[in-house]
Specification:
about 190 residues, seven-stranded mixed sheet, two-stranded antiparallel sheet, 11 strands, EC 6.3.3.2, ATP binding, 5-formyltetrahydrofolate cyclo-ligase, NagB/RpiA_transferase-like
Length: about 190
């Protein structure tokens, strides 16, 4: 079987994602909010890091609102500068968001830094073995490695189902996902 490189898999999956209609994107965002298994994953009192969608990423804001209503404290990834490691800062309703680079926004330096218990993780591609391909910078792999030093965090890949690939060529530094959430359902090992 021919295995494609991460960059080829990333490019193909992102092409499929980019081709989705606005209607399909909205329906998928609403579906993931409904499909998150609150009966299996307790979020009350936990810190959950989400993300604001860039380019054609799935929009997790409806899901984040549902988790907030269920008692989660929300956070977003933050970069103090482009070379610093990714951290996480508290997301409060009505608080200003500032440019973080990479086309996204996050809470400013005045927002408290936190260590999430659960991370909704963006990705460009994933496989059935719960491996992910990010965007090539390793931000989530490094952040998860750092956070996992004090106890394994729950990393849930969130994407459109069309981003699934047959096999992700996993490397030793790649942190696998604990679950995957798409508009077609929630999967965990």
């Amino acid at each position: 079987m021919l295995h494609l490189s991460k960059s080829a898999l990333r490019e193909a999956a992102l092409g499929r994602r980019d081709a989705l209609s606005p209607e399909a994107r909205i329906e998928a965002a609403l579906a993931i909010a409904e499909l998150f298994p609150l009966d299996r994953i307790a979020v009350a009192g936990k810190i959950v890091s989400g993300f604001l969608p860039i380019q054609s990423e799935i929009d997790v804001r409806p899901l984040m609102d549902r988790l907030r209503i269920a008692g989660a404290r929300l956070a977003l990834p933050a970069f103090d500068n482009r070379t610093a490691p990714m951290t996480f800062r508290v997301l409060e309703r009505g608080a200003p968001l500032v440019p973080m680079g990479f086309g996204t926004y996050g809470p400013g330096l005045d927002a408290p830094e936190v260590e999430p218990d659960i991370l909704l993780t963006p990705l460009s591609a994933f496989d059935r073995a719960f491996h992910r391909i990010g965007y090539g910078k390793g931000h989530y792999d490094k952040a998860l490695a750092r956070l996992d030093e004090t106890g394994r965090r729950l990393a849930i890949g969130v994407a459109f189902s069309i981003q699934e690939v047959e096999v992700v060529p996993a490397e030793p530094h790649d942190r696998g996902l604990d679950a995957i959430l798409t508009e077609t359902g929630f999967r965990a090992p």
